[in-house]
Hints:
It is a single chain. The protein is built from four helices and no strands. By secondary structure, it is mainly α. The chain has one domain. The N and C termini lie far apart (35 Å).
Amino acid sequence: xxxxxxxxxxYEGKSFKEIVNAPVDALQGVSAADAAALKAAFNITTVGxxxxxxxxxxxxxxxxxxxxEV
Length: 70
């Protein structure tokens, strides 16, 4: 699977295991300042932390369910 459009150049070609442990600013569009804000607000330091954060999971679940609500 090619996820090069989702990560910065430094993480292109890396394994998912490497990326999940990478700093959150390894994701394209996440700046060092964004990473600092995520750390300060939610103690998120890695891509894996971001993915597992309960608030982000709740928001994603709500958004997905809202699409099916009548």
